[in-house]
Design a protein that fits this description.
Layout lengths: L1 H34 L16 H11 L2 H5 L6 E6 L3 E5 L15 H10 L13 H4 L4 H13 L11 E2 L1 H8 L6 H6 L12 H11 L2 H5 L22 H4 L4 H10 L14 H4 L4 H11 L11
Length: 296
Amino acid sequence: MKRFVRWVAFVAIGLVALAAIGYGILVVASNRALDQRVAVTPPAPVLGHASVERGSHIYNAISSCVVCHGADGGGGPFINEPAMAVLNAPNLTRGAGGVGAAYADADYDRAIRRGIRADGTRLLIMPSWAYAAFSNDDAASVIAYLRSLAPVDRVTPRVRLGPVGRFLIATHQLPFDATRIEDETAPAPPTSITRADYGKYLTRVGVCMTCHGTHLSGGHLAGPPEAPPAANLTPTAFGNWTAADFMRTLTKGKDPTGHQLDAFMPWRTIRNMTDDELEAIFTYLQTVPKRPTGNG
C-alpha cells in the first residue's frame, strides 16, 4: 500500500511539474507576442483635412471609441476578467500618463489605422482592422478631436493576462489587428457618394464587421466567451424590416418583436449617428448576399 501511495505521489508531482513547465512556456510565448515589435511604416506627410466636429462624431457615435476610452479620452478599465485579462484602454489625452504629449499625428494614425504603438509593439483588443478603412480626412479629424480634449491625468497599467488569455494569444486565437491588417489590403474609401457605398464604409469603420463578420452573417466572433453571438445582418435575417424598423432598433435598443438588444451591442452610441448614416447602413445591408447565421 505504501508503495502504491508513493507511486501516486510521484505521478502527481510529475504532473504538477509538467503543468508548471507548460504554463511557463505559455507565459514566455504570450509575453513575447505582446512585446514583439513590428516594422513602423513611415506615414504620409499630410493626413487630410481635419474637422474637430467630424472627429467628435466619429469618436462618440460612428466608431464607438468612447465605449473603451471614455468621454474624456482618458481610458480606464474595460476588461476585468482575471482568467482572461485585466485590460485598460489607454489614456489618449496629453495629461500625465497619456500619450498625447508624446504622440505626433503620425503616431496617433499608426495606432488607429495600423494597430501599432509608437514603440512598434502591437495593440491588443484595438479594432484597427475596422479603422484601417478610415479616409485620410476622417483619420485626421479623429486625431484633431483627440488633441482638443482636456488633459486627463491617468496612468494606464500594463495588461495583465490570465491563463485563458495567454493561451489564446500564444495559439493565435486572439489575433492582433496589426497582423491582420498587414496580411490584407485596406479598402479604398468610397469615391462615389451613393448611399450604399457610404453605408458599406460606415459598416466597416463603425466596427460592425468586427463583431458581425466580414460577410455580416454573425456568430460568436468577438468579445468574451459569455458575450452573445452577433446577429445575422444579411437580408436572410431582416425579413420584412423597413429602414424605419432598423433605425428604431438602433436608437431605442429594441427590435420590431420587442426583443431588447444585449448591452454588448453598443447601440447607445450608435443611436447618436445621423438618420442619413443609419439609412445608408440599412441600404448597404440590403445589397449583401444572403447567408445563414454564423461564421461571419
